[in-house]
Amino acid sequence: EVQLQASGGGLVQVGGSLRLSCATSGFTFGDYAIGWFRQAPGKEREAVSATDCPPSNTYYGDSVKGRFTISCDNVKNTVFLQMNSLKPEDGGLYYCSTGSSRGQGTLVTVSS
Questions:
Q1: Alpha-carbon dihedral of residues 24, 28, 33, 34, nearest 10 degrees?
Q2: How many CB atoms lie within 10 A of CB 20?
Q3: 74-94 pLDDT tens trace
Q4: DSSP code at position 91
Q5: Taking a C-beta distance cutoff of 8 angstroms, is the pair 68, 60 a contact?
Q6: Side by side, which strands form the sheet with 78-83?
Q7: Longest alpha-carbon distance in the chain
Q8: What is the mean predicted confidence (pLDDT) over 13-32?
Q9: Backbone angles phi, psi at 88, to 5 degrees
Q10: Per-residue pLDDT averaged across 4-17, rounded?
Q11: Which of 5, 70, 71, 80 has the greatest CB tally within 10 Å of its CB?
Q12: How many CB atoms neighbour CB 54 within 10 A?
């Protein structure tokens, strides 16, 4: 059974940083791309970033380019999302996904 568990969210001030983790199991890590998505209340789901592991093809949404970095730990089967220079509009429920599977999200709140 494919499982993904996001963690690392929290409350941070504008300009601050957070590092999200997506722990995975149930599939061969590296065979499938893993993506980060976010959804804020009243807004559509947004694709934030995605990568294969180890990273050779990566994607960043326009709103996070230059501020967020996606990376992998192929030993721990975990994908990370380093988020810097956070803005209020970065807030929302972040979750990771591969194929048709998604995990429970982790909430990010950016206070001004």
A1: 0
A2: 26
A3: 999 999 999 999 999 999 999
A4: -
A5: yes
A6: 3-7, 18-25, 78-83, 68-73
A7: 41
A8: 95
A9: -55, -35
A10: 98
A11: 70
A12: 10
Give, in order, the Cα–Cα distances in Å from 73 to each of 35, 39, 40, 94, 95: 14, 25, 28, 19, 17
Contacts for 30-36: CB closer than 8 Å, 24+ residues apart: 30/54, 30/74, 32/98, 32/99, 33/57, 33/98, 34/4, 34/72, 34/79, 34/96, 34/97, 34/98, 35/59, 35/96, 35/97, 35/98, 36/70, 36/79, 36/81, 36/94, 36/95, 36/96, 36/97
Tokens 């996904």 map to which residue? 97
Q: Is the pLDDT of residue 30 over 90?
A: no
Residue located via tokens 């807004």? 43
- Which pLDDT does position 15 carry in this prediction? 98
